[in-house]
Amino acid sequence: MVEIQCPHCIEIIELNSELFGLFECPFCEEEFEWSPERSPSNDELFNSNDFLIGLCAPALPSSIGIFYAFVFAEGWDTLVWFTLSMLIWPVVEIIFLIYGIIKARKFMIFGTSMSLFLMLILFFVLPVFQ
Asked: What is the pTM of this model?
């Protein structure tokens, strides 16, 4: 049993702790809604799976394409595969970013943003040092 205060008449009401939903106050006969509050667990505060999916999944198709370009392709095929692999990363990244925004997955959005940042470093800053 749990004791709660009626939001209308401020009387103390005893309810079964396992029940939630709409109730009628026995004192003022007004309806009110009650649900037990859950305390957030560590999994809800930081979902590492969403972060890792957002970080690694956009780079995976590009990594496979770059590996194929340098190991199996020859001549101009190497350049074509390498270019297509570089262009697919931001496309997949935008898809994951939109999905994270629609589903309100904060850590997937954060992981995808980190992936974008890493892509910018890899493809625009590192060639300057070679």
From this structure: 0.57
